[in-house]
Amino acid sequence: MSAMRGIKVLELSENVSGEYCGKLLSDFGAEVIKLERPGIGSPTRQLGPFSEKGDDNERSGLFAYLNTNKRSVALDVTTAAGSVALQKLLSHVDVVIDDHASGWLKRIGLDPETLDENWPKLVLCSITSFGQSPPEDRLHAEDLTVFQASGLGYHTPSGSPDDMPPLKGAGRFLTSYEAGLDAALCISASLYEREVSQRGRFIDISKQQVLASRLDYVLGQMVAGDMDVSTNRTQFDLFGPAGIFRCRDGFAYIWMSAPSHWDGLRKLLGDPEWMNTFPERWLERECTPERVKLCRQYIAEWLATQEKEKVAAEAQKLGLILVAVNNAEDLKASPQYAFRKFFAEVNHPVLGATLHPTVPYKLSATPALITMSAPLLGQHTSLLGEQP
Amino acid sequence: MTQRMRGGPLEGVRVVELTKVWAGPYVGKLLAFLGAEVIRIESLDSLDVTRTYGVKDINKAPGFQAVNPQKLSVQVDMKKPEGIKLVLDLLSKSDVVVENLRPGAVKRLGLGYDVVKAAKPDIVFVSMGMYGSEGPLSYQTGYAPCFAALGGLSLLVGHEGSAPGAMNIRYADSTFGAAAAFATVTALLHRRRTGEGQFIDVSAVESMTSMIGDTIMDFSLNGVVHECDGNLHAEMAPHGVYRCANNEWLSIAVSSEEAWRSMAKVMGQSDNALFSTHAHRKANEAALNQAVSAWTADRDVHELVELLQQNGVAAAKSQSSVDLVADPHLWSRGFYREVTDKTGQTKNIIGPSWKMSRDAEITNAAPQLGEHNAYVFGELLGLSVEQQKQFADSGVTR
Question: Of B7-16, B135-144, B178-187, where does mean pLDDT reach its minimum?
């Protein structure tokens, strides 16, 4: 059984944030109708990774990933005819998701300001870079610029020297995935209330705020005046010997902050002489830059001779927090991911059978499931005629 | 009670937290911001380290306060059977329980799903672990940077040709929490429609992999394993962060030919054939980035942002913590907002990432330890004043 069966969602999104939000709902069984411009389709169809085979509109692995369980209706809502069809659709759906720039919804005849009056039962969610009323100097944005405006960018990576540029973060679309997640959360909560109240709601998601709110532990202390602010690139950092080290077959990450970690390391290394030159409880009480540097040197020498998975398993059993730094291939081979069935095989008419990453939560009664591959462009346009 | 009637979509929902540090508390915070009544169960003998980290007064710990606004706190000794009984009584009157204790810890406490379900058959029970609650590696534990390393993110972050540098060390817990919160609310929706509760098992590592789904798809489709590549982007060029005057940094992302033509014009690069199309700019990206860097190097970052924005180019200052806390847009949207603690003192907090119609009121700072004992034990559980005193005297509640 699916948690969102019977819930009708109209997706106007043409970017990763709104499409990911729609996917989070459709994988829980919501009926998501995606409107795409005839002939062209969603711009995400033109973004990689691409399969070598297939028509240009149908070979994007990005689109295939983001649009599982959805239906595609070819309709241009910016035309007069499209606008009429849209108005009709709006009376049949429970939720609308959009991720165009603010102002676009009003232009297509779905003004958030008059939502309560015209569509009192509709849950309308708009995901934008800086919210509904962006300042003049924030009108144009991409995931990178939002990431950099949010505080995450300036402080990525940790321990960065001042003369190296701040970085983009992992992958191309982390900003959008994060925003899509908060959008899905707010939509789900609104549906929960709507079951009883029969009332809709307008939800205004700012990507900048999503990323900044993910930093609440530090940024919250800063805005409260409890933690110093500065122009230091390392202002969010925790200092100490923790970090990524090269191994024989890749990289491993080691965390060390407590005596138990030091003790674990001692056991794992067989009580080496160098550890006796450090005072007891130095990690907590006497964690000087010199000691950190020396400790890191010894760890680097040792880990360079180790294999990441094997040493991680040994370390974990001794209470030392050490893990492999995984890549996509490692994840596909992970026994834990296999156990939890994190990868699902999806059969797509053009891409063939492909393993998709799924969702990080297992629900015992209503698991998220992929039952349909992403739609071909306009595959379900005939649905338009079926609306009463 | 004002705690229960703050409006918002989750008004009337009661959540109990058995959580520590950041990821679990972040779930409760999101649910509280959506209107739920969120009660933290705390034990003086097993305090959340964020209550004690760097401070003497457990009621004034800045880290704890940052992640726990608008919540209630009860103090129960969970090492005593009477304490566990009280927790189960509270759970029997609650809708959700969220736990992120060490693997197996809730079972050892006598608060596993089976036990809680017996007390409250339609409970939504949310279990959070680095690798989830079961499986061959579920015994392993770690902190946020471990989640990002295991989930495939750390390897993707770093300068071209150098060892991976990873995401900021503060990244991961809150993303994990947001994924858990979405699953929780969806389970509540299902329960409201069918009466059925359930068990939710959330993996921190998988929550990380979800943030690079398209990168994983490239491996699935084409066998491509990505490595860190600085600020490069397959579909955008320029795509980078460039140094300006005063050691400030400007991010620029050019996603269309139109945007490039505008930018080339203001840079005086319109006639440069090396950069004429996206394919050319990707082929000559080192030269492109050099040209952009030379152009930004001595200029003021704010002037450049304004100029590029006027010309339709996505550009923003890379904001330091000073910039962020002063960001007028974040203040005007109510992202930073003021709350009041038990003593009447006001404090600024980080608000929600959203604005919504019929939003929940957010007025209260994080609770003092056990601040809401009387409300929870008296009003919710119906214990008499005398009974409450007995529990306190015997150390079950304090």
Answer: B135-144
Question: Is A130 strand, coil or helix?
Answer: coil
Min Cα distance A86 → chain B (Å) is: 23
Inspect the interface and report whether the beta carbons of A157 and B167 lie closer than 8 Å: yes
Contact A145 B316 (CB under 8 A): yes
Give the pLDDT band (50/70/90) at residue B3: low
Give the whole-angstrom CA distance, residue A14 versus residue A20.
10
Q: Which residues have C-beta within 8 Å of that of residue B279, sequence separation ≥ 6?
A: none
Q: Does A359 contact B206 at a Cβ distance shorter than 8 Å?
A: yes
Strand ranges (E), A12-164: 31-36, 70-74, 95-98, 123-128
Q: What are phi and psi of A298, to 5 degrees?
A: -65, -40
Query: Is the CB of B206 less than 8 angstroms away from the CB of A173?
Result: no
SS3 state at B316: strand
The closest alpha carbon to B183, from A339, A32, A366, A16, belongs to: A366
Q: Kindly state the DSSP code that residue B382 receives in the 8-state scheme.
A: -
B348 vs A contacts (CB less than 8 Å): 223-225
Domains, chain B, with CATH or none: 14-210+333-393 (3.40.50.10540), 239-326 (3.30.1540.10)
Q: Is the pLDDT of residue A388 over 60?
A: no
- Please report, as a single letter, which amino acid is at residue A189: A
Q: Report which residue type is found at A348.
A: H
- Determine the angle formed by the axes of helices B23-33 and B173-194, rounding to 10 degrees: 50
Among residues B332, B329, B328, B306, the alpha carbon closest in space to that of B317 is found at: B306
**Sorting pLDDT into bands at 50, 70 and 90, what band is B140?**
very high
Q: Is A145 touching B (CB cutoff 8 A)? A: yes
pLDDT digits (tens, 9 = 90+) for B144-176: 999 999 999 999 999 988 889 999 999 999 999
A8-213+340-386 fold: Rossmann fold (3.40.50)
CB B139 within 8 Å of CB B219: no
Task: Measure the CA–CA gap between A56 and A69, rounded to whole angstroms.
Answer: 21
Question: For chain B, what is the radius of gyration of the CA atoms?
Answer: 25
Give the number of other CB atoms < 10 A from CB of residue B295.
Answer: 17
State both tokens at A210.
């999503």
In angstroms, the separation between the Cα of residue A342 and the nearest Cα of chain B is 8
Boundaries of every domain in chain A: 8-213+340-386, 243-326
- Check CB contact of A298 with chain B, cutoff 8 Å: no
Strand-pair category, A250-255 with B354-356: unpaired
Q: How far is CA A294 from the centre of its chain?
A: 37
Query: Which CATH architecture group holds A243-326?
Result: 2-Layer Sandwich (3.30)
C-alpha closest to that of A67 among A105, A110, A102, A35: A35
The tokens describing B234, both together, are 């397959």
Q: How is residue B83 annotated by DSSP?
A: H
**What's A327's DSSP letter?**
-
The CA distance from A16 to A84, in Å, is 26
Q: What is the pLDDT of residues B81-132, one digit of tens each?
A: 999 999 999 999 999 999 999 999 999 999 999 999 999 999 999 999 999 9
Which of B211, B222, B263 is the best mutation test for A, with the most CBs of A within 10 A?
B211
Mean pLDDT across the stretch A331-356? 97
Residue with tokens 């990868």: A343
Closest CA to A370 of A66, A36, A55, A58: A66
| DSSP classification of residue B21 | T
Cβ-nearest to B354 among A141, A186, A244: A186
